[in-house]
Amino acid sequence: MNNPFEVIEARLSSIENLILDLKHKPQTVEPTDQTEQLLTIQEAAEFLSLTVPTIYSKVSKGELPVMKRSKRLYFSRIELLQYLKEGRKKSNAEIEQEAKAYLLNNKKGLNNGK
Question: Which domain of life does the UniProt lineage start with (predicted)?
């Protein structure tokens, strides 16, 4: 049987090593969907896979959602995701489904008018 003091000492040593690892590793906090992360223009360009001049151009045309404070531009990661999703094209199946629903609704409307 193992000496209980040796077991306790080994466990304490393991805990101490874990604490030291946590202490010496930089803490990175990942933003959750609920917290809004603000991006600089360089980060926004990287996020959208565009160049910084293209970002400036889209901002000046009012194409990108942006916040300005003094001379700095800030971008909401959530708003940039929404911007990307707005450019999404529907699949053929989605278009067909919408067309069928439209035709069904219009037939009902035509029948009610008679």
Answer: Bacteria
10 Å CB burial of residue 62 (0-12, 13-18, 19+) is exposed
As beta bridge partners, residue 39 has: 75
Radius of gyration (Cα) for the chain, nearest Å?
28
Q: What is the residue whose two structure tokens read 């990287």?
A: 46
Which CATH number is 35-88 given?
1.10.10
| CB-based contacts of 65, cutoff 8 Å, min separation 6 | 75, 76, 79, 80, 82, 83
Q: What is the pLDDT of residues 9-47, one digit of tens each?
A: 888 888 888 888 887 776 665 655 556 789 999 999 999
Vertex 55, ends 49 and 57: CA angle to 5°? 140
Strand order from edge to edge, sheet including 67-69: 38-39, 72-76, 67-69
- Global pTM? 0.53
